[in-house]
Design brief:
Number of strands: 8
Low-confidence stretches: 325-331
Bound molecules: uridine-5'-diphosphate, magnesium ion
Radius of gyration: 26 Å
Number of helices: 11
Number of domains: 2
Largest sheet: 8 strands, mixed
CATH superfamily of the largest domain: Spore Coat Polysaccharide Biosynthesis Protein SpsA, Chain A
CATH class of the largest domain: Alpha Beta
Shape: elongated
Distance between the termini: 48 Å
Helix content: 40-55%
CATH topology of the largest domain: Spore Coat Polysaccharide Biosynthesis Protein SpsA, Chain A
Order of helices and strands: HEHEHEHEHEHEHHEHHHE
CATH architecture of the largest domain: Alpha-Beta Complex
Length: 331
């Protein structure tokens, strides 16, 4: 009797990988390790945790800290990428090597409290397949970052064909189904947030208070954030290509009307004013619009270019999960 109950319990228990992308996080890692161990120790739900650290080419002592941590814990694993590929690629490197019932993505800086994973898992066990944590507050973040992020998501929501989750980072619990869906994606520039929305499945939000960074500085400079924003738009939608078309149509119509107006004026008043100002305005306007359209097309062409090169999205330098080769077959 006892034995059957145990196997039943084991069968009912779920395996859950906690995926941590890290880049130069030596100051946060010791505290993160403690809290992850605590999470595992205090868990009363039928969950078997494992931890996967994907080091995104750290230059500090992060890698040796992770190596030492994993060496004494059978449930902790790591992958070190050969250089800094960016958080998106680091996450996907992890996603592609996970084979558990569920996956949680969490930042290394403890801004996403690991203790909430249990509550997210409750929703997961109720049948939700993508439990995404939505920030109720963003402590310690500058107003500019909050405002620009808000405006960006509002814009994206308008032009994208799938629903985008606002105020949502990468902190989320994905069911195996979602993970397998993400593993099938072949694009070379993968914007995680866009793809989490795109795959669909049963989603539910989970409100939380985002803490301040435990230590160190944010790894996202202004330029990196702009890059991410542009990537989000171009990987989500081709609407900007249409903007170029509509701008062209609008300007052509306006020019035609203006031409008629000039002709009428010439016929009625007889004398034409030297049109320096208007010529300049039209030239500059047209030049601007042409450059904008070219830029938009360039963005998409660059993506085609990157895709056709067919390079692997990241390279693994060292790991303890058995991929042990310096490169992966590209996807
Ligand atoms: N990160 C990464 N590669 C990068 C940038 C960031 O793996 O190129 C990791 C970083 O170590 C952290 C997470 O991504 O675990 C989020 O980064 P950060 O805290 O700097 O972003 P923020 O919270 O300011 O948005
Ligand atoms: Mg952070």
């Amino acid at each position: 009797m006892q034995a059957t109950r145990k196997t039943q319990a084991e069968r009912a228990s779920r395996s859950l990988t906690v995926l941590v992308p890290c880049w130069n996080e030596e100051e946060s890692l010791p505290r993160l390790f403690e809290r992850l161990d605590g999470l595992r120790r205090n868990e009363t739900r039928p969950i078997r945790y494992s931890f996967l650290f994907v080091d995104d080419g750290s230059k500090d002592s992060s890698q040796s800290l992770i190596r030492a941590y994993a060496a004494t814990r059978p449930y902790a694993h790591y992958m070190f990428l050969s250089r800094n590929f960016g958080k998106e690629q680091a996450m996907f490197a992890g996603i592609e090597h996970v084979n558990t019932d569920g996956l949680v993505i969490i930042d290394a800086d403890l801004q996403d409290p690991p203790e909430l994973i249990g509550q997210m898992a409750d929703l997961w066990m109720q049948g939700y397949e993508d439990v995404y944590a939505r920030r109720r507050s963003r402590q310690g973040e500058k107003w500019f970052k909050k405002a620009s992020s808000h405006a960006y998501y509002a814009l994206l929501q308008k032009i994208a064909s799938v629903e985008v989750q606002q105020d949502t980072g990468d902190f989320r619990l994905l069911d195996r189904k979602c993970v397998q869906a993400l593993q099938q994606l072949r694009e070379s520039e993968r914007n995680a947030k866009a793809l989490f929305s795109w795959i669909g499945f049963r989603k539910i939000e989970f409100l939380y208070d985002r803490d301040v960074r435990a230590a160190g500085k944010t790894k996202w400079g202004f330029a990196k954030l702009c890059r991410l924003a542009l990537d989000g738009i171009t990987s989500f939608t081709t609407a900007p290509l249409r903007i170029a078309t509509w701008l062209g149509v609008g300007v052509s119509l306006a020019s035609a009307a203006y031409a008629v107006a000039i002709a009428v004026k010439r016929l009625t008043t007889g004398i034409d004013v030297p049109g320096y100002a208007s010529t300049m305005v039209v030239m500059l306007l047209l030049g601007g619009i042409q450059l904008l359209s070219l830029g938009i097309m360039g963005e998409y062409i660059a993506r085609i270019f990157n895709q056709t090169k067919g390079r692997p999205n990241y390279l693994i330098e060292e790991d303890d999960i058995g991929t042990s080769q310096s490169s992966l077959p590209h996807r």
